[in-house]
Amino acid sequence: MTEAADLITTRAGSASDAGLRRAINEDSMLAASPLFLVADGMGGHHAGEIASGTVIDVFAAHVGRDSLSIDDVQTALAQARSAVAQLPAGTSAGAGTTLTGVVVADVGDEGYWLVFNIGDSRTYLLSDGVFEQISVDHSVVQELVDSGQLDAAAAAVDARRNVITRAIGGGGDSDADFWLIPADAGDRVLACSDGLPGELSRAEIEAILRSETVPQDAAERLVREAVRRGGRDNITAVVVDALSVRSRAGGADIHSTLPSAARSAEADPFDADTRPRVAAGGDRR
Question: How do the residues of the chain divide into helix, strand and coil, expressed in percent and rounded to 5?
């Protein structure tokens, strides 16, 4: 589907699957300009499904705008926290969700990507031939890696991998991290739940993003391959391409070249579902 936006003209695709071990798909997603988001719910017994859907519904109210500011996103996040907190009794206990993705932003009348993240769902960028993870996981294991207490190989098999340190709901009130990135025509952004990198290595994700020229095809293949590898968690992918970006001169920078491989996650980290640190007996940051 092509979305015509003044700042960034986008084309997006999305796919989601419950996987092979989960009875319920607690992931929710939004792929409509100017918002391209993935939420991974937690809480079980439909609580996570309701929490992630509630948060996405809040942001969906902004579909059709040319752009969103950081203040707009912060306001929507506050509304989302309130909405999750007000879920009916019996549903809201333990309900929470991660949230990651990108929105189109206007900086000096130029198109920018505004990436934000709460939890361990991820946002990647393929731009000018370089593939990188933009978001940083809010997880106990990531904190241990950052402090030098775990290396990447140990992190892949650590039992605490599913314990997140920030979420919307789930017993906490956490802030999002933000990144503001100049957009270029030809950029490809991937937002995904942690079920995707749990099954496919970084190199494998990159290779699929480079080989599938249509965003919908890329999203479907990423999810399909992750399910084929074991599907131990819910898996969701949103892929968005920048077809044109408003230039500094006021015109459209049109890029006709489609997006053109490495850390592995070969272990089985999904013996437990995503859960907040408070549920595991620790303190939330």
Answer: 25, 30, 45
- CA–chain centroid gap for 195, Å, is 11
Q: Which residue has the tokens 């393929």?
A: 126
What CA–CA distances, in Å, run from 65 to 45, 60, 190, 250?
Answer: 35, 11, 21, 19
Residue 104: beta bridge partners?
A: 113
Digit-coded pLDDT (tens) for 156-200:
655 566 678 899 998 766 799 999 999 999 999 999 999 999 999
- Convert the pLDDT of each residue in 84-138 to its tens digit: 999 876 665 578 999 999 999 999 999 999 999 999 999 999 999 999 999 999 8
Report phi then psi at 215, rounded to 5: -55, -40
Residue 257 has pLDDT above 60, yes or no: no
For 159, the 3-state DSSP assignment is coil
Bridge partners, 101 (sequence order)? 37, 116
Cα 80 to Cα 91: distance, rounded to the nearest angstrom: 16
Q: Is the peptide bond before 197 cis (omega within 30 degrees of 0)?
A: no
Distance CA 40, CA 96 (A): 9
Domain boundaries along the sequence of the chain: 2-278
With 0-12 / 13-18 / 19 or more C-beta atoms within 10 angstroms meaning exposed / middle / buried, residue 265 is: buried
Q: Determine which helix (DSSP H) or strand (DSSP E) holds 42, and give its type and residue range.
A: strand 35-42
CA distance linking residue 283 with residue 26, whole number of Å: 24
Identify the helix (H) or strand (E) that includes residue 254: strand 252-254
Does domain 2-278 fall into CATH 2.60.40.2230?
no
Q: Which of 32, 1, 24, 28 is nearest to 16 (CA)?
A: 28
CA gap 238, 219 in Å, rounded: 6
Residues in the chain, how many? Answer: 285
